Prior knowledge:
By secondary structure, the chain is an all-alpha fold. Helix content is 80%, strand content 0%. α2 runs antiparallel to α3 and α2 runs parallel beside α16 (334-362). The two termini are 34 Å apart. Mean pLDDT is 90; it is low at 365-369.
Amino acid sequence: MAVAAVGGVACAIGWVIDPRRAAAAYLVAYVVFLGVALGALAMIMIARMSAATWFIACRRDAEHVTAVLPALAILFLPVILSARLLYPWVDAASSHSSTLARAVAAKQAYLNFPWFVARAVIYWVVWISLAELLRRVSIANERRASALSRRRMNVISAVGLPLYAFTVSFASFDWMMSLSPAWYSTIYGVYYFSGCMVGALALLTVIVARRVSSERKPGSADEACMQALAKLLLTFVLFWAYIGFSQLIVIWSADLPAENSWYLIRLAGGWKILAAVLVAGHLLVPFLVLLVRAVRKSSKAMAAVGVLLLVMHYLDGYWMVMPDAAPARGGPHWLDAGAVLLIGGVCALMWRRRRAAFEIIVGTGHAFR
Length: 369
């Protein structure tokens, strides 16, 4: 609560002295924290559909992460209120160039504020419904294990995964890609999804590694889960790099001004340095480290890798959003820390309270079936 309060005060001051920079910092932090929660939701459904028994040890942790989605839905209100500051298409008359004005006019059927808000409502209904349904059936199965409960979770996951894929893709188009309405990429949603999975797996790795370190029981289910998470983390680190490189090589080789403008900004000046940091910290270092078996078996080393990738997940969101949201004031700013404290504090508070409520309902001594 104290962390959220400090962040809230910082954001409030920022809204007074520099509203656009405050809105940009808030949007970066928002899509980063949202990405972690959405990645955890996808992991629950994927594990359920693939009958991944190793995931049983951390399924409860993933469900606690998705439990913050209602709080994130409320935290989306400032994004709506600051839409005019962030998105050029909200007020077409304010477009500074004829190219941008033409792009906004051509996409006006999709990029209009009422439809933008309506789509956001649809996304949140889908995400919260999936997370809460899975959570409730999981609690019912915890109280009394039954084939019916397991079948319900399978059905929810089977129906939910396609809905999840569409809503996450279009949400990334609406809230991030449309910051530059003249630019587009059909693979953008997949790139955001890959970052969501890396962020979620990194957080779960930190949680499980901490538990392994405190338990100190060789061969435990948590230790096996940590090693499985390490392998999946390596997989999605490579997937993130593959999708990012695929998008870059296709756009760069086409050499069309309407397409490569997005990269021209991000591969120049300070943004080029940040891109190099992402290549090193989001790909090379974790790739080389996670190949070492001794690292995958060490709870301290895995916790460090998880923290590194969570930081990289934030920097990746920063690199994607900030050059368009606040091009003139996109460098490091105290408002960035304020937004992280506000959203992170609220999410942590929600996570802790809903975890406590869950443990009261099902008890702490039971394992998932």
